[in-house]
Inverse folding.
């Protein structure tokens, strides 16, 4: 991350509303981080994953972008994971009170 981006992020996160919104997305950020790490470890490009999944590179880019208007199905996530040599594991975690 560039130093300008780090400064911007630090400054923005001082604002309570921004911090709250950012923290509210932590699960999504963590999931996207896992997805990107898995593809990097598999040594595949988006185009290669797309070919294995039977879709387009742009569809893989949308999946990896975390765009809020795009919510992939579990079946899509399973196909993506299998293309990388992984499997999807979903579980419910009790909220801390």
């Amino acid at each position: 991350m560039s130093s300008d981006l780090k400064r911007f992020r630090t400054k923005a996160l001082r604002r309570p509303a921004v911090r709250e919104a950012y923290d509210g997305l932590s699960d999504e950020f963590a999931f996207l981080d896992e997805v990107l790490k898995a593809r990097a470890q598999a040594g595949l490009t988006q185009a290669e994953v797309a070919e294995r999944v039977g879709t387009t590179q742009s569809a893989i880019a949308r999946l990896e972008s975390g765009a809020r208007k795009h919510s992939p199905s579990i079946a899509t996530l399973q196909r993506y994971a299998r293309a990388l040599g992984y499997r999807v594991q979903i579980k419910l975690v009790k909220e801390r009170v």
Summary: The chain has one domain: 3-84. The chain has a mean pLDDT of 90.
